[in-house]
Structure formats: C-alpha cells, structure tokens
Amino acid sequence: MSRKYLISFVLAALVAAAAIGVAASRAQGSTPLPSISPAGLLAKVAAAAKSPVPVSGNVAWTNGLIPGSDVASLLGGQGSAPNSLAGLAMGGSGRLWVQPGDGARLEVQGNGSDFIVVGGKDGIWSYSSATGTAVEYSHAAGATAPSVSPRPSAAAVDPLAGITTALQRFASTGTVAVTGQQTVAGRQSYVLTITPAAGATTTFGSAQVAIDGATYVPLQVQVFAKGDTTPTLSAGFTSVSYAKNDSSLFSFTPPSGATVQHKASPSMPSATSGGAEPTPVKHAPLTLAQAQAKARSYGLTLTVPAKTAVLPFEGATVTAARGGHGASAILHYGRGFGSVVLVESTGATGPSGGLTQQLAKLPGGLLTTTTIGGAQAHELSTSLVDVIAWQRGPVTLLAGGMVPSSTLQQFVAGVR
After folding, report:
1. Is 85 helix (H, G, I), strand (E, B) or coil?
2. Which class for 109: exposed (0-12), middle (13-18), buried (19 or more C-beta within 10 A)?
3. Which residues of the chain does CATH 3.40.1000 include?
4. What confidence tens digit (pLDDT) does each residue in 317-352 have?
5. What is the pLDDT of residue 364?
6. Distance, CA of 213 to CA of 219 (rounded, Å)
7. Which fold has domain 288-413?
8. How far is it, in rounded angstroms, from Cα 226 to Cα 206?
9. What is the SS3 assignment for 110?
C-alpha cells in the first residue's frame, strides 16, 4: 500500500473505470471469453492504457465502511445530491465522462439539486446547485485566485486512469487470479481477484475487478473485508459507451450569481495517462534517522514506536511547513495490505490535524475514546480500516491502516 496515501484504496474504489482500449459500443453476448492468465490480463490492461479512448456511462458506488450509520444524511439528507467532494465518499450514483485530451466530468442528481465535478482545460471545478457554490481547486492551500497557485491538470484528477494505476500497484502486494467471467454494464468481462499475501495481518479480504473482455476497461471494483461476502466498497458502470463526446462537455464556467471559492486540491495518487504529463521525480524513502534529523530541522520532533513494535519500519517522507500547513512526517510500517501509516504534524491545519478535526465532527457512537500516554485519543474502527488520532503537545499524531483494531492499538501503545 502506498505510504503517502493511507486511504488511496478508498479513493480508487469510489469511481471504478478506466479510459483505455478500443472503440466499441454494442453490448456483447454471453459467449465465454478466451482463457487468460492473470499476468496476461494485467499486461493487456497496461498496454491498452497507452492508447486511451473516450468512455462514458451511468455509474453507481456504495460505501459500507460504517454500516448502519446515517452519515449521508449529514451531507444534505437522503436522496439529495452531495454539496462537496467529501459527500461523494458516502455513496451515490450519477453519470461519468472521461475523454483523453479533454478531461473528466461527473454529474450527480438528487432531490431538487445537482452536484458536478469537472476537470478540463479550465482547471478543476465542483459546483453544487443546492448551495449555489462553485469551487476551483489549486495545488497550494490558501490560494485566493487562480494566478496565485497553478491549476492542477485534468489528467491529475482522471479517476479512470487512477483505477488502472491502483490495479497495477495493488497487484504487486498480493496474490492475483482470474476467478471467472461475468456481464457488467452489458459487457462480457473477466473477474480479476486480488487477495493479501499469505500470513498478512490485515482486515482486507479481497478486491474483485471486472475487466471488459474486449476493451480491457475495468468496469467494476468491489472491495471485501476479511470474512465478508458482501462488498464493503463497490463502484462501477451500470451502462457504458466508448463514443466520443463534444469537447465543450469538459469546460466549466460558474453560473451567474454563483459564489466562487478557491481551495487546495484534495490529495490523490497521480493518474496521468498517455504521457500527458512528465513523470514526477521519485525520491527514495528516508531512513528513520534521516527522517528524525530532517524533521528536527523543521521544528518537528518525531515520536516513534519502540523497537519492539509489531511492524517493521519501511521508510518515511518529511515536508516543511508551507501553504498554511505545519511541518509534517509520514512514517510507513509493515508491508502490503497489512501496513500502518503514522502521520505527525504541527498545527491544526496539518495533514493529521485536519483529519483529527474531521473525526471529531462524526456523530456520537462512531468513535471510541481511549488514553495514550496520558492524552485522550479517538479511534474510528470499521470492518476495513482502523484509525487512531491523538495529540502530544503541539504535535498531532494519527495512525491508521487496513489492520485489526488490536494490531493498531498495540502499535500505537509502542509509540514513544
């Protein structure tokens, strides 16, 4: 699992598709597809991604991380369209368009309101008709005008290419098998199943990806918690077309009278496709000693698990204070699906501080409270992911991963 993005698996599962393959619009019959090995299927997906074509259709996604809770109603009421990007995480349905060279567009309709997300030549925008608010997203926090901070490109928010990237990355951390065929959105598809490596201590059971047998487009993603037969996260097309759309669909101008805001773009894995952007420079992760020294130079003193911690240290990244955020460090422990990320930051607006504030806003009953080193801590435990956040002096700490609550509590108990 990516050490930089603790919950990238959530983001990847919320919109399941990929703009790759060859043009095709007619529904396939039920004739069985030719047999193919897992490596062969992954190779075809990767090869097809080099020649992306338009893809569009109706999509639906569900989030069962907190079953039985009415979190969605906090974001506008049942049957209403969300009014922010965060609201999309609660589940829903809509229509998605992705077109190479033009961008991506998602529309969600609800009772008397719509929510639109557009990433194109005009930058990245969201618009809620319920609030009459249009938001333009930029790379840096605190930007008050587009000229202050460069716009992220449309390729950077392409959810379709992101699925392909996540599929390749997660396939390298577990066991991959082609476990059958099924019809999804009218397309005969292979089912690729990814499970954790043997012996991994994780709540992750498996991920099942339905891949179009003709275009090699991932049409559906389902994520299962260990021991569950119902997917915890599910997303995919219910209808799909590979016809080209008018480029104007990917342009956005705030409606007359709308309130316009400028915010930092949400963190997400790179999702470039077709060589549209230069490959970012990758730096080797820091050793623990290097991370501690670099953090001290930024005024951040790291607290780390004792040597007897249940998971081995795998690397770290440290960033200086910038854009209104304090200095922060991300420490990665363990490998694959059973890994844990420990985030430490100064200031309430830092990466862990911001998430801690969001946890505190959740309705009662979703969090448990405990004590860590004399400080109060909050834990959010679900069937798939567990998160614990606490404060130590001016530093906010957050630990989380797809591991059992007992494993995370043992890990946190060793943080000194």
Report:
1. helix
2. middle
3. 288-413
4. 999 987 667 899 999 999 888 999 999 998 655 455
5. 54
6. 10
7. Protein Transport Mog1p; Chain A (3.40.1000)
8. 7
9. coil
* Portions of the chain given CATH number 2.50.20.10: 8-264
pTM of whole model > 0.85? no
270 vs 34: CA distance, rounded Å: 32
pLDDT, averaged across the chain:
78
What CA–CA distance (Å, rounded) separates 370 from 408? 13
The model's pLDDT over 120-154, given as tens digits with 9 standing for 90+, comes to 888 899 999 989 999 998 754 433 334 334 444 54
Q: What is the pLDDT of residues 228-259, one digit of tens each?
A: 999 999 999 999 999 999 999 999 999 999 99
8-264 CATH choice from 2.40.50.180, 3.30.70.1450, 2.50.20.10, 3.30.450.20: 2.50.20.10
Place of tokens 């995370």: 408
Q: CA-based Rg of the chain, rounded to a whole angstrom?
A: 21
Write down the pLDDT at residue 2.
Answer: 38
User: Which tokens sit at 25?
Assistant: 């619009």
**pLDDT recorded at residue 232:** 93
Per DSSP, the residues of 277-290 read: SPPPPP-PPBPHHH
101 conformational bin, left if phi > 0, alpha if psi -120 to 50, beta if neither: left
